[in-house]
Amino acid sequence: MQVMKWSVIALAVAAGTSQLAFASAQSESNGFVEDSSLNVLTRSLYFNRDWRNGNPRAADGKDGKAEEWGLGFIGTYESGFTQGTVGFGVDAIGLLGVKVDSGRGRSGTGLFPEDSDGRSQDDYSEAGGAVKLRVSNTVLKYGDQFTALPVFNTDDSRLLPQSTTGFLLTSNEIAGLELNAGHFTAMNAQNQTGRDSYGIAKSVDLIGGTYSFTDNLSASLYYADNDDVAKKFYGNLNYNFDVAEGQNLGFDFNIYRTKYDNNTVATDGFFGNGVEGDRNTIWSLSSTYGIGAHAFTVAYQKSSGDVGYAYDIGDGGGTVWLANSVQRSDFNSKDEKSAQLRYDLDFADYGVPGLKFMARYVKGWGMDNGANTEQEKEWERNLQVSYTLQDGPAKDLNMRVRQATYRADDGYQGGKIDEVRVILEYPLSIL
């Protein structure tokens, strides 16, 4: 994630000494219709998760596999802004998920809603809209939308993404500085269609921003109050520089500090005897060295405090911007420490543009699950191959195969899990 940590004072001083944005986006508006866009992303997702020591969802604990295939359509319409000092516009989203293959006993992948008998529904859909206004380089939006903020992030790891309802203010009045403020009251789950099916307890308020000091150095600081659930601070610092011709080195630091207002949230699934007022601090530091087509990454992550780091508690399933949050595990348990080794290869330098490969290994240790005093451990290995068509009638079609192997002591977090995801995505620009 390219966002960072900085103190409030440093951020304010940096903003105050920066030049104002060179031009007003609103003054350059071409009109409501003229700047409109309509895009449809088609996604095919095959998901296979194999619990090697038995599916915890199964009544007898023996049915070890969840396996489903679906086709999703994600439509987004964004109007332009009317001309004038204050511009007005509208946005709309439409989501449709269709079951291609599933069956009783193979559900539970999170791709589809389930009936009372445990069978996945044949299809599901939802639609929403938002109104927006813009003054200069500041946009205020209210309604249904997607978010990608470190303290409130709608998840897009299944067939269809989460969506949320509320206000979001985004300001870019100062060059290099983006400020955000929001108030949200509902969120829809990835595999449900009812309003607030994901469940925000009351509301989530957030504020924060990102400042780019240079092209190589940037910082962020965010705060969110999930009413009656938790309060979170997030910070990040990111620095990249060229070492030599064709070589670069980057550092990325992330940190969350969380206070839980609800002892159930603090305890459930995040290890430790949680009580109201429990706190957690979790941070990660990663470094990536790139040379030509190759990139090598090392990362270290540590969780400390009364309980582990809880997210997906009304703040979105993607609110875990940490180096060791990977395909299966987030390595976010109480007192857990984890380390990662990663390798990336871009085949463009070998005459195959669009083809990429990634392999990583993460090991966690020292976590406290509250059940015993033993030092437990877990590890995960991920492999991914992706290819994007560069030309032809299916240009931009992206194909990914993701494989995960997860192992943990004594059934910890599911114990032994093998997982395969095959994802095909085709973006279509209609307007």
TrEMBL record:
It holds the Pfam family OprD. GO terms for cellular component: membrane. Residues 1-23 form the signal peptide. Belongs to the outer membrane porin (Opr) (TC 1.B.25) family. One of its GO terms (molecular function) is hydrolase activity. It is an enzyme of class 3 (hydrolase). PANTHER family: CHITOPORIN. InterPro entries: OM_porin_bac, Porin_dom_sf. This is Porin D. Its EC number is 3.4.21.-. Keywords: Hydrolase, Signal, Transport. The lineage of its organism: Bacteria, Pseudomonadati, Pseudomonadota, Gammaproteobacteria, Pseudomonadales. It comes from Ectopseudomonas oleovorans (strain CECT 5344) (Pseudomonas pseudoalcaligenes).
